[in-house]
Structure formats: C-alpha cells, structure tokens
Amino acid sequence: MMLATKPDATALQKHSGYENWRPAVTGVTVLALVGVDNLVLPCLMGALVLPTGTIEDGQSPKDAAQLVLTGMPGGLPIQRRVAVDEVHTRRRKVISHLVVTALLAVEEAQYLAYRDPRADMSVLRTTEAVPLLTETARARTLLGLQALAINAMVYNRNGAIEHLEYVPAA
To answer: Would the CA dihedral through 69, 70, 71, 74 be positive or negative?
Structure first.
C-alpha cells in the first residue's frame, strides 16, 4: 500500500519555471563611449551604475535611450543596438536592450545628465570602471563592448549567449 506524501515545498520552488502571468519589463542600457577607451557612467549613492531606463509600449530602444542620458544638443548619438539580454525570473521576464553611442568627445560628455538627478556623471577609463561595476553590470558592459568590436548583435538568455548576428559596418 502506497501512502501519499506532501511534496517538499522547497523542491517545488527550485523547479518552478517562469510563469507568464505578468507583462515583461523591457528596458534599455546605454554604453556612452568617450574616445576609444572611456565610458560615461553615473555614480549613484556612491556606486557606479550603468545608465538604464524603461522602454514604454511603442517606443524603440534608441528613443528610450534619449531619455536615459540627456543634455546633448541634438540628442544622444546612438550608433546601434549591440545586445539583447533576457532573464526569466520566477514571475516576470526582464528584457534589456544594450545600445552604444557613437564616440563622444570629452567636451560633449560634459553635457550629459542621467535621468536620476541624484547621480553625478563621471568619465572613466574602461579598464578602471569595469572592475568597479556590479557583476551583472560588468558582464553586460563587456558583452556590449565585445559585440561592438566584432560587429555583432548578441542575444543573451538567462546568462548564456543564444545566438549572434553579424552586423555590417555602416
């Protein structure tokens, strides 16, 4: 005779997949390049962060990026989208589009302001800035810079590269 047992709740939680009952959160991250080896990064409450913002319904990643970093006459010169990073959490899908700017001069970078007024903007050498970012931000930055260097569009899902597309140089 078999007895019915109640399944372990922690085992169920570990194996519960993504439940598509809430709309996905879609955002944009901007890699603002200054010269060939510098990045513009906001410092928010003592921590360096990647400039990010939300993408509203019907808005393109390039248009949303214009609202993340403001202050340049004529708008932020977006070069192209280099990656899409998709993460499935237990209850929500988060999609982040990573765009890079055309190379900015230091003087142009001085005009940039982050969407959060508490942030101080900094122009830092990439080799100095990347180690100061969180693990997720560091991985996203390196992925974007590598995709830009090899003229690729990278699709990343749950931490693994799903596929690459070659992007012809403009």
So the answer is: positive
Residues near 101 by beta carbon (within 8 Å), at least 6 away in sequence: 30, 31, 32, 33, 76, 77, 78, 79
Convert the pLDDT of each residue in 39-87 to its tens digit. 999 999 999 999 999 999 999 999 999 999 999 988 999 999 999 999 8
Give the largest CA-CA distance in the chain: 80
Dump the DSSP string for 153-166: EEEEETTEEEEEEE
Q: Nearest to residue 153, comparing CAs of 15, 57, 61?
A: 61
The 8 Å CB, 24+ separation contacts for 70-75 are: 70/112, 70/113, 70/115, 71/111, 71/112, 71/113, 72/108, 72/111, 72/112, 73/111
First to last CA, the chain: 72
> What DSSP designation does 73 have?
T
**Environment class of 113 (CB within 10 Å of its CB; exposed 0-12, middle 13-18, buried 19+):** middle
Predicted TM-score (pTM) of the model is 0.84
Q: At 136, list the tokens.
A: 């997720």
SS3 annotation, 82-148: EEEEEEECCCCEEEEEEEEECCECHHHHCCCEECCCCCEEEEEEHHHHHHHCCHHHHHHHHHHHHHH
